[in-house]
Amino acid sequence: MTGNALPRTAEPAACPAASRLGCTAGARAGSIGSCPRGGFTGDFATADRERVTVAAFTRRQFADLARATRLAGTFAFLERLVKADFSACGDLYTHRATIARLLTPWFGRHSAAEVAAAFTGTTVPWARLDLTSRPGPDTEQEEWDDRQSRDPRVGSGQGQRRGVAQ
């Protein structure tokens, strides 16, 4: 496996913050590691058209991510600007979209090999994504339709209250 303890597939996860990561070590519905509903995760395209995913759930991981991408000063300025503390999982989660926007150009300028070199020796959990093993949209929709057609509650009115499915 390439990276620091993240899976190579990009299956949807139970945790909202890890929607593109699959299950990370210790993850369960509603929490990721020691950060219940928090932390930062991102899926980025590299200059050589590969995809990588990164995460930061601890102060050290985010500091390593900021240093490796040479954005430590930018993130420090952002923290002051929005009155956030990126050593806190909640603030990383709250500002994840802005953090991802700042990181996107860095990943876009570097190949997957350069990303690997930048994260070597850091605590940043990251991985190259293997999107070839994932079923396409048609297959996923067919599987969903098939599951729904076999569910005895679908179309029977069971599991519904006031016209809203539960």
Form type? globular
In CATH, the homologous superfamily goes by the name formyl-coa transferase, domain 3
Give the biggest beta sheet.
3 strands, antiparallel
Q: How much strand content do the residues show?
A: 5-15%
Q: What is the terminal-to-terminal distance?
A: 39 Å
Spans where pLDDT lies below 50 across 5 or more residues? 7-34, 156-164
Q: What do the pLDDT scores average to? A: 74
CATH topology: formyl-coa transferase, domain 3
List keywords for this structure.
three-stranded antiparallel sheet; 166 residues; globular; disordered C terminus; 37% helix; formyl-coa transferase, domain 3; two-stranded antiparallel sheet; alpha+beta; single chain
Structural write-up:
The protein has 166 residues and is of the alpha+beta class. It has one domain: formyl-coa transferase, domain 3 (2-Layer Sandwich), CATH 3.30.1540. Helix content is 37%, strand content 14%. The protein contains six helices and seven strands, in the order ββββαααααβαββ. The strands form three sheets. A three-stranded antiparallel β-sheet has the order 3-4-5. Strands 1-2 form a two-stranded antiparallel sheet. A two-stranded antiparallel ribbon has the order 6-7. The chain is globular, with a radius of gyration of 19 Å. The termini are far apart. Residues 7-34 and 156-164 have low confidence and may be disordered.
Helices and strands in order:
Layout: E1 31-32, E2 35-36, E3 40-45, E4 51-56, H1 59-68, H2 72-82, H3 89-94, H4 96-108, H5 112-119, E5 126-128, H6 137-150, E6 160-161, E7 164-165
Antiparallel strand pairs: 1-2, 3-4, 4-5, 6-7
